[in-house]
UniProtKB/TrEMBL annotation:
InterPro entries: Flavoprotein-like_sf, FMN_Rdtase-like_dom, NAD(P)H-dep_reductase
Start and end residues of each NADPH-dependent FMN reductase-like domain: 3-154
Taxonomic placement: Eukaryota, Fungi, Dikarya, Ascomycota, Pezizomycotina
Signal peptide: none
A GO cellular component annotation in the UniProt record: cytosol
Pfam families per UniProt: FMN_red
GO MF terms held by the record: FMN binding; oxidoreductase activity
Name of the protein: Putative NAD(P)H-dependent FMN reductase LOT6
Species this chain originates from: Paraphaeosphaeria sporulosa
């Protein structure tokens, strides 16, 4: 069974990210099967303080161990997935601090795994999307899939309810559907599945050789 985490990147309450992730999940549920599941995972639920371990994440677990329960839980949760879809907000023209902090907690849980990034915000969160892609791709050595999904809030009352109440309005959902965002999300997940399928084939070949 392959497991993909739908990571909700926002850490404030109320958060628009939960609503965006619920919408994304409703699209992706159709892609869940006996061999692949997509499971929501909220960074906020881990109550991670600003990074407070005495060791660098790169040293764990080969040379040192995490000392705090919150780090151990976050590490175990992330390690248990084979792929990831991040749903992230943009704060002040960049990646939100809470999202970056959670990513920075870990190093050896990420490499080699496929990841898609979906961002939302007033303009769709393109800067946050790019920054996370660089961090995960270049530093964490993850396979960031080519399809990047940007979800801009519809102008007017929708924008205000998202920003102030963390609620995504019908106008935004309608615009996203009309602008092909559902297809983009499905394409991004298909790209993750493709990476996992290729890896399974390589493993198969290697096993046969042994
Ligand atoms: C501190 C802060 C900074 C923000 N800066 C941006 C920004 O640079 N670009 C953007 O599109 N939206 C920005 N916003 C609006 C957020 O996209 C919006 O509040 C959204 O609801 C945040 O997601 P969340 O509720 O899941 O945290 C900002 C919001 C906050 C709280």
């Amino acid at each position: 069974m392959l497991r993909i985490a739908l990571i909700i990147g926002s850490t404030r309450t109320p958060r628009a990210g939960s609503h965006v992730a619920t919408w994304v999940h409703s699209i992706l549920k159709t892609r869940s099967s006996d061999s692949l599941t997509i499971e929501p995972l909220s960074i906020a639920d881990f109550n991670l303080p600003v990074y407070d371990e005495p060791v660098m994440p790169a040293m764990v677990p080969a040379m040192k161990q995490f000392t705090h329960e919150h780090s151990k839980k976050w590490s175990a949760a992330i390690a248990s997935f084979q792929g990831y879809i991040f749903v992230i907000p943009e704060y002040n023209y960049g990646l939100a601090g809470g999202t970056k902090n959670a990513v920075d907690y870990l190093k050896n849980e990420w490499p080699g795994k496929p990841v898609a990034i979906i961002s939302y915000g007033v303009h769709g969160g393109s800067k946050a999307n790019e920054q996370l892609a660089e961090s995960l791709g270049i530093v964490m050595q993850m396979k960031v899939v080519p399809t990047k999904v940007l979800l801009p809030f519809a102008a007017g009352s929708d924008l205000m309810s998202a920003v102030n109440e963390g609620r995504i309005g019908d106008a935004s959902l309608k615009e996203w559907e009309e602008n092909g965002k559902k297809d983009e999300i499905l394409k991004a997940v298909a790209e993750i599945a493709e990476v996992l399928k290729l890896e399974a084939k390589v493993e198969d070949v290697l096993e046969r050789k042994e």
